[in-house]
User: Fold NAD(P)/FAD-dependent oxidoreductase from Paraglaciecola chathamensis S18K6.
Amino acid sequence: MTTFTHETDYLIVGAGAVGMAFADVLLSETDANIMIVDKYHKPGGHWNVAYPFVTLHQPSAFYGVSSTELSKGCIDKNGLNKGLNELATGAEVSAYFDNVMRERFLPSGRVSYFPMSEYKGNGQFVSVINDDEHQVTVNKKIVDATYLKTSVPSTHKPSFTVDDSAQFMPINDLVNIDKKPAGFVIIGGGKTGIDACLWLLENKVNPDDIQWIVPRDAWLIDRKNTQPTIEFFNDAIGAQAAQMEAIAQSTSVDDMFSRLEKAGVFLRLDETVWPQMFHGATVSQMELAELKKIKNVVRKGRVTHVGQDNIQLEQGEIKTSPEHIHVDCSASAITNLAVKPIFSGNVVTPQTVRSYQPAFSAAFIAHIEASEKYPDEKSKNHICGVVPLPNGVMDWVRLTAAFMRNQHIWSQDDDLKQWLLENRLDGFSQLVRSVDKTDMEKMMILGRLRENAMPAMGKLQQYLAAEAAQGA
Assistant:
């Protein structure tokens, strides 16, 4: 065992999307030296252990690092995302981050990278393959890019027990099945469960052979409304305008969600079941139509035990058999929902400052860190208000209010507006700027958006105040 000493300006812990997006902006906007420490053998974080058929849920244009395009600029010509901007596969995302490291970061001479290393705190890390110890003197900041603690199915420990006799596997192992089982039991109603069901259906599994355990139904986002290109302006910005109108005109939280659904902002799996969950899952209309083919949807709460002949749930039990395959899709993508200040002393803790956009958020926070315009911690945290990650439906109210607050603050700063316009991860600023002033249809959509923004913010604050009073 050998001990090495190092000195750097920024020590970034984690080479996933957040750490890479942060480092990329530092590289572009400062002359700082950067050290990146990560537990995996190559960059990409959880993408290193993602299931084989995973893809992004939102357009590739919104993902990756600011300097390097991930999107090929294509519209999908087939599959369940047909007609929409392409979604990078897990393999493409993993290769992309590897290329950014090898072709941009390391050749700069200002980035040093230590894979296969466990960070111990206080500038110390240890190689997991040779036990070498490293002590780093950090001149500026330590960046904790692991705070959100992404959980993936392959390394996730279920919260329920499983009999040895039951066929039980993470979603990763679905591709290794070599004979038809009696049926598939998908455990989990979130993004991973959706992906598992869609993969089975795309591979011609009979919908009646799929049993889908959905502890809580979720509100879903229509992917058509997340497209960052001009041909989808009326869908994307139109949905934002419709969202502001629905909120502003609502009389209660339930009425608001009803209006949002009617306006096409939200979708749901079953019109007879009122969703209690919101995790930001995004689907195309074609994907939703496929999911609705699965009629055996079990709504009896969470699984507590998978046995040989039955599955016990919080609100009852269902039958199964040793010939059924049980697929664990119960891992939460983000396991750390606690909010803390992003800037605190010599530590930066990136979190989301825009809804559903961790890569953009990390890039934005790095820009604020790099800028001399925001010298003190208080002003940096004011600009970088945390948009909390959602779980229940009231969390959507919280995140939308926080997102709107940030957008308002940023809109008062000409330098920030210009940075947003030029940053490729901020698709919508460019989309709005590109509107021809003589295009009355688009100008009317922008007018609706502006007209309803303040009344909508007032309603959101009213609902949050009522919730706080009820809980007091």
